[in-house]
Amino acid sequence: MAASNPNVSGDSIRALADLSLPDDEGAGVRLGDLWLGEPVALVWLRHYG
Amino acid sequence: MHCRGYAVQLDRARGEFEAAGAQLVLIGQGSPRQTAHFRRRQELSMPVLCDEDRVSYKLVGAKVGSMTDLIGPRSVLKGLATSARTGQMQGRAVGNVAQLGGVIVVAPGGRVLFKHMAKDASDNANIDDILTAARSAGTPHTHHRPQH
User: Fold this and answer.
1) For residue B62, which of B96, B35, B94 has the smallest C-alpha distance?
2) How far is CA B107 from the centre of its chain?
3) Least enclosed by CB within 10 Å: which of A6, A24, B41, B44?
């Protein structure tokens, strides 16, 4: 795998885990819940243009 | 020019992530309403979360680009190639246009297996590399396999 740098500080991943963001219907999703039982690829988009 | 095309490319690969036992989730800068419109317009099946304040962008270390990062020759040429490949053209931007994106793959327990933060507007993580990282942690779904 042409891996990029997988280093993310423990503090950052814990802060991300605790962050809750709304989905497109306004329902809050705690990011840490996304990787409780299975791996997740989180993709941050630039913008919607 | 890259954002919509990249989202469409990722959505086309969603089944491969699911087969690897992994989720694929997008995060954007729009409001829920703007995000719902974006999903409908691009016919995206995968979930898209809304981060209007860009808190998660800052936490993960996504870069805010310079003018060169955004409209330099590399970025423009790659954007044209993406448009040709996906049929997606640049539309009206929602959010901070200088904000760049990125990808992390997180295993159960919170271990980060892969991280790619864009260096410029054309710098999207290779989808096969993301999938490889997801496969390295995932247990493929077995519920479609025939029972013997």
Assistant:
1) B96
2) 17
3) B41
Nearest alpha carbon to residue A31 among A48, A49, A13, A4: A13
B 97-136 residues with CB below 8 A of A? 97, 99-110, 112-118, 121, 125-126, 129-134, 136
ipTM surpasses 0.95: no
Instruction: Order across the sheet with A40-44: list the strands.
Output: B48-50, B23-28, A40-44, B102-106, B112-117
Cβ of A19 within 8 Å of Cβ of B129? The answer is no
Would you write out chain B's pLDDT as a tens digit for each of its 148 residues?
A: 467 889 999 999 999 999 999 999 999 999 999 999 999 999 999 999 999 999 999 999 999 977 776 666 666 666 666 666 666 555 666 778 899 999 999 999 999 999 999 999 889 999 999 999 999 985 554 444 444 4
Domain ranges of chain A: 9-49
What pTM was computed for the model? 0.81
Measured in angstroms, the CA of B28 and the nearest CA of chain A are apart by 5
Contact criterion met (CB below 8 Å) for B127 and B103: no
d(CA A39, CA B73): 36
Among A23, A2, A18, which Cα is nearest to B56's?
A18
